[in-house]
Structure formats: structure tokens, C-alpha cells
Amino acid sequence: MALNTVRTIDDRVRVKTALVSVWDKTGLDQLALGLLAAVPDIRILSTGGTHDALERILGPAARGALRQVSEYTGQPELQGGLVKTLDFKVYLGLLSETYNAAHQADLARAGAAPIDLVVVNLYPFPQVVSKPDVTPEIARANIDVGGPCMLRAAAKNFHRVAPVPDPADYEAVLSELTASGGRLSLATRWRLAQKTFAVTAAYDSAICAYLAQLSFARVSGTYDVKTGR
Question: Are strands 117-121 and 162-164 parallel, antiparallel or unpaired?
């Protein structure tokens, strides 16, 4: 199968739909209120505790702007939040291309929307495993799956999508959206994609380093291991 390549893209992309799912909620109020001010008709998809926080921040405005990802996809979250965003409609929205007729037809068929902005930061795995009393099971539970997947998909499709992996980038993103009528430039999307791949690479490296220093005896001793059914 031939790789899918792109020739035609837009410089400035208007942000119509944002996906916001963050562990670190620093600056979330600034982000939410700033997005609504810069793009009054924006739709924000969110999950779990982030959705609840956004609902409190936005107040009555949340009724028009905010939607649960599970409501959007039609799939409830798996117990414990293990699966929230790993869904075809989400990734169709992240990876589809503006000038690809087949992608546009798939969006229409699935009732999906292009997602233009992805604001995600990850479970604090490096901080958790730095604690002296951390167990292998606590470490495993803090390995983020959906977050890196969304960030990587958004960064891969920097042609159209802006990934925001760090609250430190909120101010610059909001300033550009405000100044440009709710649009983000290719230069900004490219810069954010570069940073995103650096963030996810460092995160994976931290996981690899932690797992490498664990003995199998310590890992297996953590659990009540059954012989099988």
C-alpha cells in the first residue's frame, strides 16, 4: 500500500473544534475562557475530570460549547478511564486532510468533525516513578496511552491540526487566535508539532528507563499470579 502524502495545505486554519484532555490543569481557566473569546462558536470536546473542570470554568457558556467525547463518539468510557479517546471518530477528526475528497466523504459518513486543536498533557509518569515508595503497579497505572496517541496524530497532521502538549504554550496560542480571527498559522502548527514529538519521545524514554531497571522477580511479586483458566 502506498503511503498517503499531501501537497496542498492551508497556511492559516480556523479552529472550529478543539479536543481538550489534560492531567495538569494549570492555566485551564485561561485557556477555556480565551478560546471562547477568540472563537465564540468553538466546539470543545473533552473527557472526565477535564470536562468537569471546563464546565465549572465556562458556566452557562458550556452548554453551547462543551461536549463529552463519549457523547460525541457514542461509546462510554471504560471503567477507570482506561479508554476514553481511542475511537475511530476521534482519529478521523485528527488525521483527515482538508483537500482529500475521500477523507471528507469519510467524515460525512461517520458524522465526524475535523479536530483543529488538541490540548493534551500526559499522566505524570516521570514524577510518579521518582518517588521512593513507587510500586511497579502504580508505575504501570500511570503510563498514558490515549494522550500520546492523540498528540502524535495531531503532530503528524500539522498540515491542519495544532497540538498543544504544554500549558506554557497557552498564552502564545491564544494571542495568535485572538489576533487572527480564530486561526493558527502553519509556522505555529509546525513549531508545536516539533515540540510535541520531543515531549512524547522523552515520555517514552522515561518509561523505557524505568522498566529496564526492574527485575522480573519484583514485577511478578507485585501480583497474585494465577495459573490460567
Answer: parallel
Distance of CA 189 to the CA centre of its chain: 15
pTM listed for this prediction: 0.93
Spatial contact of 141 and 222, defined as CB atoms under 8 Å apart: no
- Of all helices (H) and strands (E), which one includes residue 146? helix 146-156
Question: pLDDT tens digits, residue range 206-227?
Answer: 999 999 999 999 999 988 998 8
CB 43 within 8 A of CB 50: no
Cβ-count burial 61-75 (b if 16+ within 10 Å, e if not) = ebeebbbbbbebbeb
Most distant CA pair in the chain, distance? 62
Residue 149 has pLDDT above 90, yes or no: yes
- With 60 as the cut, is the pLDDT of residue 76 above it? yes
Q: Which domains does the chain have, with CATH numbers?
A: 13-220 (3.40.50.1380)
pLDDT number for residue 81: 58
Joined together, the cell numbers standing for residue 137 give 503497579
Contact 139, 195 (CB under 8 A): no
- E-only strand ranges, the chain: 13-14, 17-22, 43-46, 66-68, 117-121, 162-164, 183-184
> Do you know the residue count of the chain?
229
